[in-house]
Amino acid sequence: MSGRGEGPPPRGGPLWGLLCVAVLLLLSVCEAKAAAAAEAADAVVETYDRYYHYEELSARLHFLARKYPHVANLSSVGRSVEGRELWVMRITENPGAAAELPGKPKFKYVGNMHGDETVSRQVLVYLAEHLLDRYGEDARVTRLVRTTDIYIMPSMNPDGFERSAEGDCAGRAGGRENARNRDLNRSFPDQFDAIDVPLEDIPEVEAVMRWILEKRFVLSGNLHGGTVVASYPFDDSAGHAPQGQYSRAADDDLFVYLARTYADHNPIMRTGKPNCPEDPSETFEHGITNGARWYDVSGGMQDFNYLKGNCLEITMELSCCKYPKASKLRSEWDNNRESLLAYMEKVHIGVRGYVKDAKNGTALPDALISVEGISHNLTTGQFGDYYRLLLPGTYNITARAQGYVPVTVQGMQVVEGKAIELNFTLTVPGEDGLSNITTPTSNASPTNSTPTTSASPNTTTGLETGQAPTATEGPNVTAEPEHVPIQPQDFRHHHYSDMELFLLRYSTDYPAIARHYSVGKSVENRELYVMEISDNPGVHEQGEPEFKYVANMHGNEVVGRELLLNLIEYLCRNYGTDPEVTQLVNDTRIHIMPSMNPDGYEMAQEGDVKGYVGRNNSNNIDLNRNFPDRFGSIAEPRQPETIAVMNWIKSHPFVLSANLHGGSLVVNYPYDNNGGSNSTSPDDSVFKMVSLAYSRANPVMHKGHPCEELYPNEYFKEGITNGAQWYSVPGGMQDWNYVNTNCFEVTIELGCVKYPPAKELPVYWEQNRRSLLEFIHQVHRGVKGMVMDSKDGTGIPNATISIKEVNHTVTTSKDGEYWRLLVPKTYTLTASARGYTPVTVYATVLPEGVEKVDFRLTRVRPAVMDPLEEDFHAFIKGLSSERGLDQLVQSIATTKSSSLRYRRYKELSEFLRGLTLNFPNITHLHSLGQSWEVRTIWALEISNKPEESEPDKPKIRFVGGIHGNAPVGTELLLEFAATLCLNYGKNPAITKLINRTRIIILPSINPDGRELAQEKQCTSTEGLTNAHHKDLDTDFFGNASKHFTKPQPETQAVMGLILQKGFTLSVALDGGSVLVTYPYNKPVQPVENEDTLKYLASVYANNHPKMHQGHAGCPNNQVNYPGGVLRAAEWHSHLGSMKDFSVDFGHCPEITVYTSCCLFPAADQLPTLWAENRKSLFSMLVEVHKGIRGIVKDRSGKPIIGAMIILNRGVKVFTGEGGYFHALLAPGSHSIEALAEGYQQHLDQHHSASSIIIELEMDNHLFGLPREFVVATAAASMTALIITACIIWCVCAAKSDPQKDGFHRLRQHRDDYEEEIRLASMGSKKSLLGHEFQDESESEEETLYANKL
User: Fold this and answer.
1) Strand 1252-1258 relative to strand 312-319: parallel, antiparallel, unpaired?
2) DSSP classification of residue 5
3) Given 541, 569, 749, 848, which residue is catalytic?
4) What pLDDT, on the 0 to 100 scale, is given for residue 847?
5) Which entry of 317, 641, 870, 1183 is annotated as an active-site residue?
6) Between the CA atoms of 1049, 1053, 1054 and 1059, what dihedral angle is there, to the nearest 10 degrees?
7) pLDDT score recorded for residue 410
8) Of 610, 615, 597, 607, which Cα lies nearest the Cα of 759?
């Protein structure tokens, strides 16, 4: 019977009930008080008398975003040199759901650009609080927030701020520049000078530039300190006179007005006499000045905003003292509050509206808006929206778009106050009807992405409703000559070497947009080249879809190969001059693989019409029948070309793709194989849409009768077909893309002849060039967005986006991005992720463009974290993002490359001692034991408390030199240790990692072997073993292994460290290849947590520039390994490996990294190897903070040591000191079972995520009842039994003669007793010993001993 809820209540039930009720009431009161206290602590009342340093600023902004989620959203636009976030608070109605919808002009304030000019930093925090606190209560604030998209960046230079000193008015204490000593306001592109500053020195400027160009702000303020004045463009002049040279912008009158708006509302600024101690005689008329007239500044941010960003910006100097005492902050806020609000309101003056296509009403982004007499134009946004700030007056305004007839509105009257709405509709030359303009009488802002375009009867142009303007009334219509793009000129067949040079040439000639790389090698060792074309090659940009073209999969189908080379030339040569090409390259990351089967191509012959020579690869395998199939296995072994392309596809968030073939003329879409069932995919309508986009631009293809001479009966309606309805293809690439990735792929047959003569290639280009471009455009259809954690705004990887109307899901990238192609329609979208509550929204996909829909998911069981834990959680997530580790690596100071060299034992020991002497507070050197030749096995601990036991911190082990002939790992670990120590206290990210991690580095565990090994010996085994000729990686055996040989002293030393347990992760570095292996080395050992082990290995490989490609390129091994990851037994199967011992006996996952093909490469290769591996090594420091960690305790709060944590009913870890446990797990949901002797079992389900903290409370009950109650009841029962037994004995004793009865009983049983003794004495020694030493485990030693007896 259960002890809960069944059977009659125990005695004293009412009393127990009253007691339980009282306890529950007490607990609820305590919880309520605790919650109130926590809320009160979080909601600190603003006192205006203290500065917020980075940690406090971050916590404060996070608090505001959580408190006001309906109007506030916090995000980071990038990181500083030292890894601090550049926080931006977005304030507007529905900042998540309403992301990027038109109708609200974007405004921004940026503060603390110079780190020691600090008033702006605090004033902008106060402004954010002011707007959020008064939203819904103050009419002015409410109107601003509802009608404006406001962005506030309190600190653009957080590193400089941390080095500044309070009270430093003149800026002599430092902190003005960033951590690389760069003045951020001298580092932007300049109209008169070339600003030669390496981007790696100014990540803050790079991030803000990207932000400005992406957001298309309308108005901005840059807040500084050092005097009191509003300065406006231009900041410098062509002659660069130091001062006194007025540098007039085209909008000079408008800038003066805007600067006066700020100055007039500031009681000190408007006097024009700041009376600053540094220059008490300095004055500014009306409190404003032209920037260059004051003093010349090249590379300033306000000029960049105006010239490049569509945005008007002025610079406000807020106080004479750059870093005044905190007691002055309230008065500074009072002086600037009204100015800040009044200036923001000016974003709503002038003219605003939309530019659209007259025929179908679609938006025209990047259309040009010009005002006669003002030589400064701006462009429309993605929805065709524009905002043109103008002073009251009469203007002639023109809208132009490439390929459309421009329209000019004469005599447009701009009045004081709110902006006039002026919409344009443009026509292409030759279309019926003329262009139109509308000026609605209502100035209400549009509330959706399809604003009204109906004409108003009160239009200022004098047009009647619906009347088209003519040449004599209304706008002037003038046609402009169309731009003619440059076409390829050199048409020929490119063999492999020719193609290789072609790609090298264009990537060299156009490095700003072109990068060529290889994804692997063919059977005959030819590179599988890809050309990437993007405005930021080599980088995935948030929100930008990735697209690919693949050709020449069948080696004798060559037209696609040549067309893609033509396309590369076309895109490169027309970028920057042709609007369509420029937009495609700026908005899309395009990957082009001209040849997937270069071996087959070299066998094929020109003139082949419908043959097979060269179709297959060098192993005679058809690559388009070699991919995993959804209906059955593929018999042929997976080919290196197939493996390489699969790895490539999985490593990029491709959205759309085409595979170019030959032999017919049609676009073929999934499914290619139907398995005898329906061949229609769930996205049939999408596939038809993108297929028709290609075929309709190719008139010959669109007719549907492609090869009448070869195949007279073949017909494809509109030039497209379902693959399986044409003919079934098992193992095809397009189906694999759709079923296994987020990428939609079609197959395009480009012509009836497979290998046509070179003279016909110009015709193929002319027929297909428009189609190739139109198909790329299709990647910008449907919906896209982010799936984010509602608490910290970080992206959620591997979240699922499902469409109610379409039975096919896509998943988010590692940064939480998604793209979902859809046909125009209204859809029900749901975003879900393990551990989060799903969110469902409705989205309408328009005929043109992509709809942006972001999701913010809330955790089902949100972890309770203090602010520091929450900040560290966000920090780890940030490092795990797309460029997080890249930014970390760029920000660290490293030793000179010349310091990388091979060190023998003596120098290695001195180096380690040097680290402990120079960095005593974070290092401790341990001796684990000695080698055969009495060399010490060193272990270096790096932590902020290296000699203290800190069970709550994850513990990571790095091991090198297990094979003395592979010393690269040793040198990499020494460099790693030096980098960590040198950056501690200087680099915030490194400092955080060291403070929160216990790092143990064993640089060389086989020092004897290392002494024997020789440099530049790539395959020599000299030094592989220790001095006793033992391979140490075959010497790790536990007690249960039946291995009775005494371990080597080196092995014993390391085993002792492993058996201390407490390690979360171990990384061993070896040599001889370029890959990562995971347990087990044992040939037949099942791997219970293979997903996790493989995941950890993949993290290392994916952060290595070569390893993840899967082909090491080693002379002794040409095999491809998918992702560069392999189970150890498949690489080198043996017993006694260190990684197997670590998993089985240390309960710690270990991976082995093979760092280079050569075991002992030349020393001059070490800098390159360090550059290749350092990001991966840091990724392990990040990864060790993920998984699931927690504490096991009983209900009284006492920690339980030695409790067993069983993960997914297989993997076991044990709680250590303080009851802490930590287990690394692959992303996903996992079952957790906790067992401890004397406690009730606990079973739960948890989601593996970065730095999740969970508490598993062990129930201190027996039989479902409190232990104390059970023990007391048992004691009372035993007492009652003893008393009863005594009473019975006394009664029986009184009725009998004990003496007589005793002799009688003895005689009665004497014979039996003697027989029992005799039988027992006959037992053999063997049986006695066997019983005495019986054990469940079998022992050869025990059996031998028993047999001797």
Assistant:
1) unpaired
2) S
3) 749
4) 75
5) 317
6) 130
7) 92
8) 607
SS3 1192: strand
The C-alpha torsion from 1104 through 1109 and 1113 to 1116, rounded to 10°, is 100
Concatenate the DSSP letters of all residues of 78-126 into one string.
Answer: EE-TTS-EEEEEEESSSTTTTTT-SSS-EEEEEE-SSTT--HHHHHHHH
- CA–CA distance, 1062 with 1219 (Å, rounded to integer): 11
Give Dmax over CA atoms of the chain in angstroms. 145
Classify the C-alpha dihedral 1065-1067-1068-1072 as positive or negative. Answer: positive
Rounded CA separation 875/865 (Å): 14
Tell me if the pTM is above 0.85.
no
Runs of H (alpha helix) within 1090-1165: 1090-1102, 1128-1131, 1138-1144
Question: Judging by DSSP bridges, how do beta strands 720-722 and 664-669 pair with one another?
Answer: parallel
Q: Are 1123 and 533 spatial neighbours (Cβ–Cβ below 8 Å)? A: no
The secondary structure of 977-1024 as a DSSP string is HHHHHHHTTTSHHHHHHHHT-EEEEE--S-HHHHHH--TTBSS--TTS
The single-letter code of the amino acid at 100 is E
Nearest-angstrom CA–CA distance, 729 and 711:
19
Using DSSP bridges, classify how beta strands 817-820 and 782-789 pair: parallel, antiparallel or unpaired: antiparallel
Q: What is the mean pLDDT of each run of 10 residues along the chain (1349 residues)?
A: 36 42 45 42 72 95 93 94 95 73 90 96 96 93 94 97 94 93 92 78 92 92 96 92 92 96 96 92 94 93 91 96 95 96 96 90 88 92 92 94 86 90 85 50 34 30 30 38 79 95 94 93 95 93 95 96 97 92 95 97 93 95 92 85 92 96 95 81 95 93 88 90 92 94 96 94 95 96 92 87 93 93 89 87 80 88 62 83 84 72 94 94 94 95 87 90 95 95 93 93 95 92 93 82 76 92 90 92 74 88 86 73 84 90 90 94 93 94 83 75 73 73 69 71 56 46 57 71 75 50 38 38 34 35 33
The pLDDT of residue 27 is: 44
**Segment 684-719, tens digit of pLDDT:** 999 999 999 999 999 899 999 888 888 888 899 999
SS3 1324: coil
- Residues in contact with 421: Cβ distance below 8 Å, sequence separation at least 6, in sequence order: 351, 352, 353, 439, 440, 442, 443
**The pLDDT value given to residue 1250:** 40
Asked, as a colleague might, if the bond just before 984 is cis with ω within 30 of 0, I would say no
Residue 157 CA from chain centroid, whole number: 23
Helix, strand, coil percent content, the chain, rounded in steps of 5: 35, 20, 45
Residues 6+ apart with CB under 8 A from 1075: 1101, 1107, 1112, 1121, 1124, 1125, 1126, 1131, 1154
| Phi then psi dihedrals of residue 758, to 5 deg | -60, -30
Backbone angles phi, psi at 974, to 5 degrees: -65, -40
Which pLDDT score, from 0 to 100, does residue 374 have? 93
Contact indicator for 398, 407 with CB cutoff of 8 Å: yes
> How much is the pLDDT for 460?
31
Q: What pLDDT is stored for residue 319 in this prediction?
A: 95
**Phi, psi angle pair for 590, to nearest 5°:** -100, 125
For residue 749, indicate whether it is catalytic: yes
* The pair of three-digit structure tokens given for residue 281, joined into one six-digit string: 């005689």
Can you tell me the distance from the alpha carbon of 813 to that of 817, in angstroms, rounded to the nearest whole number?
5
CA dihedral 1289, 1293, 1294, 1296 (to 10 degrees): 140
Q: Give the DSSP H/E element, type plus range, for residue 692.
A: helix 684-696
With beta carbons less than 8 A apart as the criterion, state whether 970 and 905 touch: no
